[in-house]
């Protein structure tokens, strides 16, 4: 199946960071705001999950969230996840099925880091899933600007300029 077939089959919608998504799970069990770090405003579900598809030539722009995010590879070409840790260390996570060449079926992106993603190839698509705990809420989502990240991490200007909107 091609990218448009998967988008149509699962009813994926455009995501603000790029690509297409659909929430597939939202726990009915809530974590009280008093049990969460002060950076959270209000209750959160224990966990949420989405399908996420990036067509080749598209990218998910640098953003960060307040929770850990576990990425799962499903099909298509491998996905490159570009991570900027709080100390400025850059890390490339390769999400895919070719474990002999450094890819993994799962990767964790820690809470509070800047990250962006893109298919590893100029053809095809990457179809993946993301599980967030405590559960995702758009109040916890921050989209970066290139000026903001370049000022903080000037040594990463090339990748930041390419993967910000």
Can you tell me about this structure?
It is a single chain. Strand 1 and strand 2 form a beta hairpin. This protein has a domain at 1-21 and 50-126: Jelly Rolls. It has helices spanning 3-10, 146-152, 157-162, and strands at residues 13-14, 20-26, 30-31, 44-45, 48-55, 60-64, 68-76, 79-84, 90-95, 106-109, 114-119, 125-133, 142-143. The protein is built from three helices and 13 strands; from the N terminus they run αβββββββββββββαα. The chain is mainly beta and 165 residues long. The strands form three sheets. It has a six-stranded antiparallel beta sheet, with helices on one face. Strands 9-8-11-6-13 form a five-stranded antiparallel beta sheet, with no helix packed on it.
Strand-pairing-aware structural class: mainly beta
Largest β-sheet summary: 6 strands, antiparallel
Q: According to CATH, what is the class of the domain at 1-21 and 50-126?
A: Mainly Beta
* Through-space gap between termini: 29 Å
Helix content class: 10-25%
Radius of gyration: 16 Å
Provide the CATH architecture of the domain at 1-21 and 50-126: Sandwich
Counting copies of identical and different chains, the oligomeric state is single chain
Beta-strand residue fraction: 35-45%
The rough form would be described as: globular
Mean pLDDT over the residues? 97
State the CATH topology of the domain at 1-21 and 50-126: Jelly Rolls
Tell me the number of helical segments per DSSP (H or I, 4 or more residues long).
Answer: 3
Instruction: List the secondary-structure elements in sequence, H or E.
Output: HEEEEEEEEEEEEEHH
Strand order of the largest sheet: 1-2-5-12-7-10
State the total count of DSSP E strands: 13
